[in-house]
Amino acid sequence: MATVRLKPGHVQPVWAGHPWVYAQAIERVEGGATRGAEVRVVDPRGNFLGRGFYSSGSAIPVRILVRDETTAIDTSFFRARFERALAARQALGIGTSPDTTGYRVVHAEGDGLPGLIVDKFEDVLVVQLLTFGMKEREAMIFEALGQAFRPRAIIDRTPANAAKLEGFTPGQGVVRGENVTTLSFRERALAWTIPFDLGQKTGFYFDQRELRGRVEALSKGKRVLDAYSYIGAFGLAAARGGATEVVSVDESAAAMEVGAECARANDLAGVIRFQRGDARRIMQEAHASFDLAVVDPPRLAPSRGAREQALVQYSKVAELGCRAVKPGGLLVLCSCSAAVDLAALTRALATGAVRANVDAIVLERAFQGADHPVPAAFSEGLYLKALIARVEPRSTRSTAPVTP
């Protein structure tokens, strides 16, 4: 087994439990590591820190799976990690009720399996293999998933961009079990059926479950905008919560059709309207006509290098969201970009509010759900954050434009 030796000054994060070894932290690789191979990680003095899979040429050449010298990374190892992940969720009440049968059951670093995502849609598992090392071990991973969950089918939906970065060809479609064409599940007693080929993440955004519940609780008697809605999960929550009208907006005609069908299946079609279009234009033209607006754009900062430009975009969508909301109304602003932390998102909201000539008062903050756990030493894992703010007429301070 090859050894990755760290430079002085780069040991503390890994020693404290951070699962990533960055390229700039590596002094040298001893023993000729090949792509996907298991490697040891040691400090400058040779003290053992952990073992993981090697990704040559990556900005993160090693993601650590185990912190001892002896544990074999085989089918039994994966099965044990899967069973532990499931038990951790059941201990929190996730997956123990027929009201919620869809959730994330393996969240990469949060479950000690960096490079692997597994979402559970009742008895169907959807998998993403995000590193070369995980891809090379897909046979044992699929076998272990079968042993731990006894699924009706296992589907590979590894993103093409992630596979390209790691240097492999992603699998697509059913890899074990029955030929599945739709993903059906329940979330908080709402029923969902999504065509397999719709194509967002694994098929659904489970990470926003708790925030959808909060939006539902805040929607009674309100006119609600669900911007960048995908299939309208926030919109359906608002409609069930007693909203007088919900407008869900997305550029995907297919997503709008699926959302409308799910609304009919849940007897909410009379409240929610699905509108294909540009969410920015819809917010611009709303002219303070909504009591509550949920603005959940796609990831604007896929990397740290894109962060500054993304913050400009977040301030713009925040401005448009503020303009769409009535005085005294609520704006829910979300970011799924790990490179944009809560403080940066809050600054973007403040800048957008100034440009809209209103004040935004942050009332609540929200993050990804408990089925998306984050190791204490891995701040990068807290990728999802949201602000719930009250939009008020602006006080007498200057309204001169500012540069973010």
From TrEMBL:
<keyword id="KW-0963">Cytoplasm</keyword>
<dbReference type="InterPro" id="IPR002478">
    <property type="entry name" value="PUA"/>
</dbReference>
<dbReference type="GO" id="GO:0008168">
    <property type="term" value="F:methyltransferase activity"/>
</dbReference>
<dbReference type="GO" id="GO:0005737">
    <property type="term" value="C:cytoplasm"/>
</dbReference>
<keyword id="KW-0489">Methyltransferase</keyword>
<keyword id="KW-0698">rRNA processing</keyword>
<dbReference type="Pfam" id="PF10672">
    <property type="entry name" value="Methyltrans_SAM"/>
</dbReference>
<keyword id="KW-0949">S-adenosyl-L-methionine</keyword>
<dbReference type="InterPro" id="IPR015947">
    <property type="entry name" value="PUA-like_sf"/>
</dbReference>
<dbReference type="GO" id="GO:0032259">
    <property type="term" value="P:methylation"/>
</dbReference>
<dbReference type="GO" id="GO:0006364">
    <property type="term" value="P:rRNA processing"/>
</dbReference>
<dbReference type="GO" id="GO:0003723">
    <property type="term" value="F:RNA binding"/>
</dbReference>
<keyword id="KW-0694">RNA-binding</keyword>
<protein>
    <submittedName>
        <fullName>LSU m5C1962 methyltransferase RlmI</fullName>
    </submittedName>
</protein>
<dbReference type="InterPro" id="IPR029063">
    <property type="entry name" value="SAM-dependent_MTases_sf"/>
</dbReference>
<feature type="domain" description="PUA">
    <location>
        <begin position="2"/>
        <end position="87"/>
    </location>
</feature>
<dbReference type="InterPro" id="IPR041532">
    <property type="entry name" value="RlmI-like_PUA"/>
</dbReference>
<dbReference type="Pfam" id="PF17785">
    <property type="entry name" value="PUA_3"/>
</dbReference>
<dbReference type="InterPro" id="IPR019614">
    <property type="entry name" value="SAM-dep_methyl-trfase"/>
</dbReference>
<comment type="similarity">
    <text>Belongs to the methyltransferase superfamily. RlmI family.</text>
</comment>
<dbReference type="InterPro" id="IPR036974">
    <property type="entry name" value="PUA_sf"/>
</dbReference>
<keyword id="KW-0808">Transferase</keyword>
